[in-house]
Each structure stands twice: as structure tokens, then as C-alpha cells.
């Protein structure tokens, strides 16, 4: 199934055949090209080249065109400090430095780096019809904070009307950006508003909800999908986020995914997250990346969930870790193996196999994912069945599917670590590759000989 | 006398800066932290008592509420502003030595990170709890932290990062500090930071909220 279709299904809360994967590759794509963030984020051609490289390497179902929450601020006159390994940072706040709000205008889409990201979007759209393109816009509260600085938190309390006017302006900017991204071909508009994590639910409801709702409606009217991104511990605002009626919300590892899942589904909103960005993807290895991703997948499930990192990937994130995740999402056998090995270390109740063995018969256990949905598993079971025919009731075989708890327990009890595996009289004899019939029969005869 | 301490603590807890401030609505037109601190000084109350019996009590209540997610950044900033307004009146007494600080805390955001909200919150709350705070600002290199620590023996360093993309700089900075001064205490915080990360990079304390920083400093000072 094509990535864009998967994303659409997930966001409509339809069951998907596999969980969609959306790595938040921003300046990290620059590192794939050997560029600094400064070089990468100031060139449409480099962005196209970098996103192409990321698509080729990580096989995403969706991907951001650029992850930079300073584009609108820059177009509005904020000064930026550029860095080698980070997106730029806003270092000036016009409304704190004498500019009046009434003198500010929604910028022309021709200003600053806006044309750059729109051009990149158009080119990527032409080249990747099937990958969901995410156009990221600065959420209005975060943009308002760029313009006014942290004084906005006091202004909210001391002069709420002024904050509403500022949010009105920031929302108009956001709609301009969303409209241009959609026109350029973006499928999903992500409203990225990390600063909303800092405020209480009552303030969120007053100063954020009406404006984000308006943006979400605008995006829907333009036949695109909307996603509401927040970074940081925004647990107190998850419910309010859902009430803005986005198609999707996405969170980072500060918030428990099961908590988000339950609230989102209650509001009929799809949800994404939240592979650990730092201790796993940046500092961990492939094994840790697979395990953390699988944990998210198992919590998120196949209805409404999109697997993503917690936030913008660090440039130095090892690409091997992201490749490991991209392979995992498509490999149900590997998922099963990880679950079973996790089960063993999680002290799953091992089975008492005392009565499982037989002093007169050879007992064959085939550990599979599920022979109906895993082709190698099916052939493995078939091979055992055919090999056993000539021995009649002297050979007993049984399939143990690890999609069922008994299968997981059996796998752990027998010490099996790969799928599919053939265990004969408790001995792991064939792993992964389907053996020839005569090889199985040779083993059976050896065990029968030993019993006589 | 006792009543004014309580009022001052309330002003800090609920963010009543001064008389003209319209926030919080139920304290409108009342004296704020600014006026009450001055009244206490005029009555001959010592700066230390004003800090210990008024400001710190209010600030601790806010810190606990913040930790428990009962108040958030806007409320805490208003409290910090109220505390700052009162502290302005006490500054001469700290400088003259009549009132004592409990220790020195050096704070900044790590190199590459120019976000200052969390850092400012921690700085204000730590100061409100009786410590001298040296705020190095944003985008601070390891060498700058070390120099400030060497100029202030016994101080503790606080590192803040809001960007996940500047996490690796935090690790480098902690590494450089510990290499030069193994006994220098470093605490870390910021939205993407957690205990796992703290353990990995060898920092002494991770605190998800400013009150945790205060408690860490208080434990060291005792």
C-alpha cells in the first residue's frame, strides 16, 4: 500500500494493514548530504536533494518538507541566529523592540525563505506521488511568542485583549502559510506549536483553541489533512488539542502514548508519536531503536496511529537507527521475534512442559508468527507435515503462533529466538530457513532411534 | 506584623506584583508584593526575615503547584515577577552583607540553544529561594560555565536545553566541566531532558521543574 494512502487511512481512523511511519527529518537530511543546517535550510535544491535522500534511505510513508519553525518569524522581521547543527533560533522580538502590532502585516508569500519551501514542496510533489508530504507551519502561539518574546505569558494575564489581537495576527499568518503549502502540493499541514506546552488548560482554551480550530477548519476546507504537533510535556493540554478538531495530533516522549491514544480516540482524532528522540534514536543503537519503536506500535495499534519520532530529529542521529525502524514497520516476523524476546525478559510465565514430551513419540513444535500471514512460516509447517507423514503416530507436530499468548509462552519456554523455528523434542534444530524434507526426516529418525 | 508576612507570601503565590496590576482578578486594587515588602522594611523588619518568612514561603507553594501541574508557566512567571518586585527592595541589604545568600547558582542554556523561558523560570525561583543567581544567558559554551564557577567557589552549575537538537551539546558541556572539575555539581533540565539522559551524560541532578532544582540546592547547602 502506498504511503499516502496509509496516512489518509490512519488519519480517518480506518484499520490499516501496517502502521504508517513518518520520520521527522528536518536538518538531519542536511547531515545525509554532508551539509550544515545553515547550508541545508537556505536552499530549495538542497532541501529537495536531502528529502529525496531521506525517502530513499528511510522509506517513509510521510515526511516533512522542512522542519524549521522560524520561517514565518524571519519573514516578519525577526533576526535569526544560524547554527551548524540546529535549525536557526529567533533572537529578536519586534513587538518588544518598538514595532506596533497594527503596523505588522501578514507577509507576502514572496518574503524570506517562504518561496524556498514552497518550491521544494512543488518539486517533491512531482517526484513522489505516493509519499505524504507534510508542510510544517509555525503554530500561532509559538509565532506570537517569537514576535513578543516571553512577555506574552504576562500579557495573557495582564492584558488578555492584546493577546487575542496578537493571536489573531499570528493565525492569519498561519493560514497564509497553510494555503501556500497546500497549493504547492502538501498533503498534510502540521501546525507545530511547542510553546503551548507551557500554559495551563484554561489559558489554552482561551488563547489557543479558537485559533487552531479556525486553522484546522481552513485546512479541511482546502481538502488537506491537518496535524497538531506539540513538543514538551503538554499532557495537561491533550484534551484541548483534540477539541480543535485536527485530523491528527503528534507528541513527544514526555507524554505517555497510551494516555494520548485513549483521549485522541475518544475525540475521534488520530495520533502519532513518540519514539524516544534522545536516549534511543540519537544515543542508542539499532536494537534499542527497534524495541522502542515496537513498544510504540503495540500501544498505538493499527487504527489511528502513526509511528514517528518525538520531534525533529537531531542532525547527528545515526541513520542506522532510523533504517532499523523503517525495516521493522514492514517486517511482522521481526516484530514477533522482538515481542517474544521481550516477553522472556519481562518474566512472562513460562510453561511447564513435563507432560509435553513423549518417551515413545517424537514431538515437533513449530514456532511461527502465524502460518496464514507469514509465508515462510506456512512453508515451514507444510514441510514438517509432509516430512512426518511416513511416520504415522510416532511423530506429533504442533504449530505455536506467537500472535497468541500460548505461542509467546512456548517460544520463551523453549528458548527460541527466531521465526519460524522447528524444535524437535525440545531441541532447536532448524532456524528461519525452510529445510529440505529429507533433512527433517533425518532428524526425526535420529530421535526415534534414540528412543528405542 | 505576622499578617503582612502572610500577605506577602500570598502576593508571591498568586502573582500580585503591585497595586496597579489587574492580576489576579480577586486581588485587584490591593497592595502587591512591591508595596508590602517596602512596608515591612519601613517597619524595621530585617531583609532576612522578609525573605524567609514571606517570599520563600510563597515561592515554595508556587514551586510545588508547578511540579504538580496545578499552575503553569504564565502563573509561575507572574509569581516570579511579584517576587522580583519585592527583591528589588532587599537588594541593598544583600549587597551590604546584612542578609545572606544560601549559595551561588550559575545557569545558562547550552551552546546552540537560544530559548530562555525555562532558564528564566529556574533562575527566578532559585533566586526567590535565597540563592545568588548568575545568569549567563543563552547559547553558553562550556568554558564560560567553567570560568564563572571558578570565580564563585562552591557554586552549582545549571544547564538548560529546550531543543532536542542541542542535547548533544549538553553532553559535551557536562563532559568538559567534569573533566576539569570532577567535584563541580551540574544539574540539567529542559523539555527534552529526562533522568535516563542525565544518567548517561554524568550530570548530578535532573529536575523536571524549578522546585526540584531548589530542593537539590537546599540538600547540597544543608
Automatic annotation (TrEMBL), chain A:
Keyword tags: Membrane, Transmembrane, Transmembrane helix
Keyword Membrane carried by entry: yes
SUPFAM superfamilies to which the protein is assigned, alphabetical: Thioredoxin-like, UROD/MetE-like
Membrane-spanning intervals of the chain: 131-149
GO molecular function: uroporphyrinogen decarboxylase activity
GO terms, biological process: porphyrin-containing compound biosynthetic process
Source domain of life: Bacteria
Residue span, Uroporphyrinogen decarboxylase (URO-D) domain: 5-330
Xref: InterPro entries: Methanogen_methyltrans, Thioredoxin-like_sf, UROD/MetE-like_sf, Uroporphyrinogen_deCOase
PANTHER family with a match to the protein in the record: METHYLCOBAMIDE:COM METHYLTRANSFERASE MTBA
Name of the featured protein: Uroporphyrinogen decarboxylase
Taxonomic source organism: Saccharicrinis fermentans DSM 9555 = JCM 21142
From TrEMBL, chain B:
GO cellular component entries: cytosol
Occurrences of domain B12-binding (ranges): 102-222
The keyword Metal-binding is assigned to this record: yes
Keyword set includes Glycoprotein: no
MF (Gene Ontology): cobalamin binding; metal ion binding; methionine synthase activity
Swiss-Prot/TrEMBL keywords: Cobalt, Metal-binding
Any coiled-coil regions, as ranges: none
Pfam families for the chain: B12-binding (PF02310), B12-binding_2 (PF02607)
GO biological process: homocysteine metabolic process; tetrahydrofolate metabolic process
Domain B12-binding N-terminal residues, every copy: 29-102
PROSITE patterns assigned to the protein according to its UniProt record, in alphabetical order: B12_BINDING, B12_BINDING_NTER
PANTHER family: METHIONINE SYNTHASE
Family affiliation: Belongs to the methylamine corrinoid protein family.
Protein name (Swiss-Prot/TrEMBL): Methionine synthase
